[in-house]
Amino acid sequence: MLEQFGEHAGFIAAAYVITFIVIGGLILWVRIDGKAQMRELEAMKRRGLRRRAEAKD
Amino acid sequence: MGLMDLANPTRFMAVSQRILPWMWGLAVAFLAAGLYMSFFLAPQDYQQGNTVRIMFIHVPAAWLAMMGYSIIALSSIGTLVWRHPLADVSARAAAPIGAAFTFIALVTGSLWGKPMWGAWWVWDARLTSVLVLFLMYLGLIALWRAFDDPARGARIVAVLALVGAINLPIIKFSVEWWNTLHQPASVFRMGGPTIHPALLWPLMVMAFGATLLFLAIHLAAMRNEVLRRRVRAMQITAARGVATAGAEDGEPELA
Hints:
Chain A is built from 2 helices and no strands. By secondary structure, chain A is an all-alpha fold.
């Protein structure tokens, strides 16, 4: 399929591959960070800690 | 529900949790359609040939690089004027995403420039001002990380971010103010776009999908930042409790 994009196919493929890697990495980092924060929050709640806003409820 | 209601972090967390799956879904759908149009429907450009397909990611990335910094600048006003913690959360979450899109714009521009201009890089006003934007993103990220307490760093970073916003009109008008190798605006310009609809439509669909993706990542990163600050607040409360208990037992109280 790549050859149908002519002599500059390598440049086109490189542009899309790099974009996919950067965006994929960004999404992965956000998801891993989100899970880590949730884990930390749950661990603190298990230790009986509450935020002030929650403690008022 | 007004915008001010959303500014409540608890309300923001509830609303963002509901709309995020829809934003991810819509972003994927538009990007899939855009990629199909870019590779299977869009013709070759009469001058650029197939390298025009790089434009379908380069141009949206460049637009979003500027949008990311605009979000930071607007959020910085929110931090300085209303001192709202969500404004700083928004700015801080937007910085790495904006940096990533600026990096993509620079790299894809370079990959287009080599076959079209014969050079990976030229120091023309547009390219240089976008490189400065990338460095500013990195500077802001480094400055935020330099403060242990996000609330203390927020106002200092907000002032710097607003000063840096002067680069946005420089990027936009650089192709008009100076003689540049980079072509002038061809989509958002007086008199309408100069691009043929066969190439304009894939570009616009890709741009819309990429914008939705940017906003979805931004919203998810904002949620992470809110959670991070909650964890930090609980850690501080817990440490104070231990310190106070220690002081009551005759131990020195921690600062």
